[in-house]
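Pasting two entries for a bug report.
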Amino acid sequence: MENLLGQETSPYLLQHQDNPVHWQPWSKETLALAKSEGKPILLSVGYAACHWCHVMAHESFEDEATAAVMNELFINIKVDREERPDIDQIYQSALSLLGEQGGWPLTMFLNSNGEPFWGGTYFPPGNNYGRPGFTNVLQTVSDIFKNEPEKVTKNRDALKSALQQHNKGFDGDRPKLTLEVLDRIAARFGEEADPEYGGIGSAPKFPQTYVLETLWRSYLRTGNEGLAEIVIKALTVMSQGGIYDHLAGGYARYSTDARWLAPHFEKMLYDNAQLLDLLLTVHHETKSELFEARIYETINWVLREMVTADGGFAATIDADSEGVEGKFYVWSKADVMALLPDHGPHFCEVYDVSDEGNWEETNILNRLTYPDMQDVETEASLKACRNILFEARKSRIHPGLDDKVLTDWNGLMIAALARAGQYFGEARWIDAAETAFVALTTHSMDKDGRLFHSYRLGRAQHSGVLDDYANMGRAGLTLYEITGKAFYLERVQTWVGILDKHFWDDTVGGYFYTADDAEALIVRTKNAHDNAVPSGNGVVLEVLAKLHLLTGERAPFEAATDMVRHFSAEVGRNFFPLATLLNNFETLINARQIVIIGERSEAQTIDLISVLNDFSIPTRIVNVISETETLPFDHPANGKTKLEGKPTVYVCTGPVCSAPANTAVAFRALLKEGQVHGPA
């Protein structure tokens, strides 16, 4: 047997192609090999930017003695969790059922049918960190598999049963969801906010943009300033902390400490897309200079460093360089002073740079003690200093770029870029979003509209999962609202048709994570839980709601209401992982339809659209139609006409539309009357 990862395209798998471990890719053939040899499977799941994945690789997978034990006792399978989220999702759930905290690297032990019986995450080479040494684990698991099969069978059966039950959903009371219920949930979320350092929960701290959006939406509905303050503080500390790259732009995945100083330094496309979306939503009302700066800087980073040759967006940038976490990003005070002889003292004060360092005897640039924007002249001086450091940093050895193009993550970034481009009048951002959409539909979609999950080096592979259709569907509707190009709407209709045919659960409702004709794994997962990315079922709820309201089609609305009915049982049990579903439930029942009758290119139409820039309306749907176009017969604005022959807007909620407005002043007054929060 030999290591077969050299035949793969995933940068993560290729990182391991020279390991002495006889790594195999996940396949039916590999499972059959385990059966024929009578060996258990060691499944190792990680991703290219993962720091602890690199640590375990250096300590164990590159070690000849450890590899020899692995090769003798196991069939060893390596999986990129970003390429195969369907596999990762199942075995992360299995690990959770074992009472272990999930994460990466994921280390699971399976039988030849792929059924798990034990596992963990990172294991040190010897007994350390309160965890058993990896070689000891290997030998113990192998011995039990050979000599105590009843223990393996007992664990396997218990895990398999629990996984199957988990994916059936929950029975019991199904609370009636209302806006009042959402506000009570938001208040409960608010209790988890850190009043001292900002953000949700304690260390390690993740952005949790879905929860922050729940708080912001409730603030918009209720006027509860305390909820708005939680969101603004969280975005401020993330934007001024060490989790943000103050030289190049972009946010790291999470902070290892409570005060947002020290991240694991990997940058993920999905985090930055979600933060851009939330920053935009909040900036509509606050007009924060800081948030605007971070939006521009982050998008500039994406367009400079994350665009692939065909216009799609790369997945991640590594945490490590030269085998050291964060080495690319940190500074000594001596280096900063040498580069900034005149402005160094002030820069070091503002960015927390000291001789002793603020993290592992070096310095992570941050402005946690200077979070407020300074005067224009001071900020210009600091920017000039940052540019000098940025140019100097270019000469360092860069962290690796994982340039595979993931369909679901690209959908998130396409929507965020397009929204930002319209809001700030940056046509090039909209162009980049449209180019990426074309790249995905060219390289990661077949002739029938079926999506693939990933492509790289000219190879599209792995059947598209729910998140791919959901996020690309949302991106398509966003581009349709902004550009008015009908093919975006038509593409989304095709994708929803595929979801209904191949993903829908005909028994109880909701969409499965994988298609009915995809590779059969030990369980077909279905839930509405947010994880690193928003729940596919949660995002689809928004897609269905908007599709219904834009086209008048009844089927999307019926699917959406069936989804809410099915997943509402979970709300009574544990609503914490359901924020995206809850947020988009509001869109389903309380969307604000902005119908503009006029040509999109007319100056007066543009003026009307620009009024929306001063109002934070997460549930808005913008539909610009010409006088010759007709709305669905049951649309509340059906039959409405221009006022005085000028482009005219109607604001519709439910079955009722406002009076017409054909000036920016009148439109602004309509929105204020509707109690949408905006500037006074």
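Entry 2 (this is the one that rendered wrong in the viewer):
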Amino acid sequence: MTDTADFLFELGTEELPPKALITLRDALAEEVRAGLEQADLAHGGIIAYAAPRRLAVRVADLATGTEPKPVERRGPAVKAAFDNEGNPTKALAGFAASVGVEPDQLTTLKTDKGEWLVHRHTEPGKPATDLLPGIVERALDRLPTPKRMRWGASRAEFIRPVHWVLAIHGDDVVDMTLFGHAAGNCSFGHRFHHPDALTIKHPADYVATLRESGHVLADFAERRERIEAQVTEAASRVGGTARIDPDLLDEVTALVEWPVAVAGQFEERFLEVPHEALIYTMQDDQKYFPVLDDKGALMPWFVTVANIDSRDMDAVRHGNERVIRPRFSDAMFFWEGDLKTPLESHLESLKQLVFQKRLGSVFDKVLRIERLADFIAERIHADPQAARRAARLSKCDLQTQMVGEFAGLQGTIGYYLARHEGMPEDVAVALDDHYRPRRAGDELPRNAVAQAVALADRLDTLMGIFAIGQAPTGAKDPFALRRAALGVLRILVEQELDLDLVELLTEAAEGLADKVPEATDHVMGVFEFITERQHRYSLDRGIRSDVFQAVSMTGTRRPLDFEQRMRAVNAFIELPEAEALAAANKRIANILKKTEETLPESIDEARLVESAEQRLWESVSAVGPRIEGLLAEGDYTEALTALAALREPVDEFFDTVMVMAEDDALRRNRLALLARINALFLAIADVSQLQS
């Protein structure tokens, strides 16, 4: 059996892009794994490490070489290998020469298709030290690094300049040269705390040596955990709680090798600025963690994470406080300027802001949103006047100084300015919430007025962009129509607004008539686009594709109704009768599809001559009125559960009754009975689409 030893590879670089660090780490591990498997090098677990100035991977129990393996190469058929006199043909001679043996050294392989000459030999194993350089080089070449750079006089390219290479298998250095650097057994510690070389005697010593001697936490998860604990503790010491955004935590973890959290303070007067702007500045610009009080309000504190354990941490704190002060001063200047200007006064300037060339200005879009929001408000029992008011003001904050400086706060600034002007709370909230959900998993609009404006905004965009022929293609979606469609679905489904989507899209298309007269021709195209998003939306929540297909056959145009039907079918497939009834419905559908006869509208009980068809009709007659009542109440789950009672009489009917009887009247009556059963199910979903 081949010996094993741990393998360690580390690439030392200039600071790597922080937002790409996790991706680079995971890709390196996966590419090394793929390379080892392709080379048939046996190994144990693989752990990848990533810090700002290094990428590394450790492979446990890596074999010192590949195992010898038998190789069989088939040559010509026996009948083509020799001539009439028994001498080797050119085909045989050529094959033997290609494998380096004489013709008489080949063996014969017998198969059911004839006999063949073959060459069998054992391919010796290859040392891991010969294979690892190529595996590592290919892994680095395949890292997802869209922009590579050169440095110095070297022709080598990587995402950042490379300063050292470490590669050891057990106690031995692996002979490889990458980016002009020969591999050794030395790493380097923290740029300031330990800039000198550190000898790594064994791969298992890597993390501990860097931590204890080099002031480097090489393990991303360990570093992240320490940062989170330090930030939490620092915020607690000043009487607050750190607001730790997971993405920011990842980014900060990718920026530091030896984290030291420091709490800093700013003047309370800055708290007069909308807190979202201050948080935006702290998180996005400075990579600071805001501190909140026990009520969730912003405190005049922040926590930063230094990449050095300074002897004078007060100097570090004061430096960060000095950096944030002018940014907050700018925010306060912009905010105070915006407070002097009524929000609605920006409406006229929206005429100069182009939404889309053919669809007009943002002002034109606002007028369309206003009209459509009024239409929707009446159907969801929202205040139409408030919806129109919110729609009219919905984009005004785009022209404020605050949004000009903090583009991500559009809507939020409108909310604060509306409250400052004393507008009704539902209108103010709608100015912010009509952008919800902004991203996957985001919160939804908080009131009915906001729902109306949010739907109107998205439906106008969807309808308009489709109408001008710019629907998404492939991965390209410049107007974020997929996100807009998902937003429409989440509002309608999760907030239980039972609206006809085709009706809403038709209204949106009519609002575009002056810009795109043919907009109504695209209503069904947009409807199908949103329905496809509902398919993805349902799959993401664990609803089977065949369940979606079963409901789609009903032709329902209301996303909430679609959702309720899918829930009912999901419950139905858990019933013991479900599989048999789905199979029976498939059989019924196939029979009805093939018949070209005009079926009677009602069942003639006198022609139910078989006991099985009589019992089936009795069951259908009993359950029918109940189903109709449940459907009227929208209780699809209970309706399908009630239909499960038809399983036994349906099975008995198919076992004992000849549907396609020679007697025309009997046959048509039996087909009408099956059509009645089919109609009961189709009122909820086409269960014949369900897979067993």
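Dev reply: Rendering is fixed now. As a check, the viewer should reflect this: The longest helix spans residues 313-339.
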